[in-house]
Amino acid sequence: TEAEKKALAEKHKAHKGAYKDALADAQDLVMQEAVKLHEQFPDRTVEYHFEAILQRTHTKQKSQKPTRWNAFLRSEVKAMNAGREPDERRIKATKVGCEIAEKWNAMSQQEKIDVTKDLMEDLEEHRNNKSLTSHNVPISAFHDICATLDSVTQTVCRNSDFGHALILYLACKSLRDLDHYNRPYVYLSDDRVGDFFQLALKETPSNFATRLKGYCTSGVTGVISNYKKSFLQLKSKTSALILDKLHDATQVPVSRMYYVKFDENITVQHGVVLENWLLKKFASPGDIGSMVEVKTVYNGFMSGVTKFRKLTAAEWQEWEEVRFNLEHTDEGGNYGTMFFNSNYGVV
């Protein structure tokens, strides 16, 4: 009846909620154990220990005795992979097992023994080494991710063929998975998707995925932090360079560079003017809001285009007269601004 269906649905819902809560509690316990492991082994992150606890090796306690078929299969797959390019996907035994089985079944019993005589020792050594190998969390995660991506890609292929849809599929590791080995993964269901990237973004999907990985592994905070840090360092370096150049021009110690009333504090005191300032506004690098403009100032001083110059005695006297006229009359302003600008000492 309808009432029974409703009661059963509510029972299932309550069971699902209870299981979800119990699972969350179990995960909390695992995280607590991961924290304890981190305290005992601080060279690994808490996330690493958490993942290591959840992972389990698939090695059987009792393995079957190696057979000549196993040795032959391993040898054939190994030979196939040896002829592939380094960036090509490795061939798996499950994909070519039937093909190799036909070749194996066509042999006589003596031929099988002769072919696998040396291969059996190699297989035995390989199995022993594998059994003694310690569990590696990043490598296990790598294989898990590869298997998942293959499965998802196959599903996407089937759906795209059925629904005539064009699909772009990108995958890359995140900030918490920096120790994982997976490269950015790209799947295009049609070449037109790749053409769009070239037209719209001027780069291939593979390059875009690589840039995405860099963004995801550093995070927005990391990108902004790096930019701010670089900008502040550039400002500091530019200010220090300007002060060094001023010292060279004055030939006496100067405590600081003056951007407000440069004429009173620098030119009047030391007879030095600044030539070819490359920005419209004369200001300290610390007060400039554009990294491009700060770089312009820095490169100007480094190249010698912008420089401090010591006035000769005659030029200094002329400068004083021009400055006096500008301050006490409305005439002669064009001459003074043309020879020095409104900051007087900045040419």
Largest sheet: 2 strands, antiparallel
Q: Taking strands numbered 1, 2, ... along the chain, how are they ordered across the largest sheet?
A: 1-2
- Hey, roughly how much beta strand do the residues contain? under 5%
Quote the distance from N terminus to C terminus.
95 Å
Q: Give the fraction of residues assigned to helices.
A: 55-70%
Radius of gyration over all CA atoms, rounded: 37 Å
What is the molecular shape?
A: elongated
Number of helices: 12
Low-pLDDT sequence parts: 57-62, 331-344
Mean pLDDT: 78
What is the ordering of alpha helices and beta strands? HHHHHHEEHHHEHEHH
Number of strands: 4
Find the structural class using helix and strand composition.
mainly alpha
What does this entry show, briefly?
The chain is built from 12 helices and 4 strands, in the order ααααααββαααβαβαα. The protein is mostly helical.
Question: What does this protein structure show overall?
Answer:
This protein is mainly alpha-helical. The chain contains 12 helices and 4 strands. Strands 1-2 form a two-stranded antiparallel ribbon. Strands 3-4 form a two-stranded antiparallel ribbon. Helix 3 crosses helix 5. The longest helix has 46 residues.
List keywords for this structure.
two-stranded antiparallel ribbon, 12 helices, about 5% strand, mainly alpha, about 350 residues, elongated, 4 strands
SSE map:
Blueprint: H1 2-40, H2 46-54, H3 68-82, H4 93-105, H5 109-132, H6 137-163, E1 168-171, E2 185-188, H7 191-200, H8 205-250, H9 262-270, E3 272-275, H10 291-303, E4 307-310, H11 313-328, H12 333-339
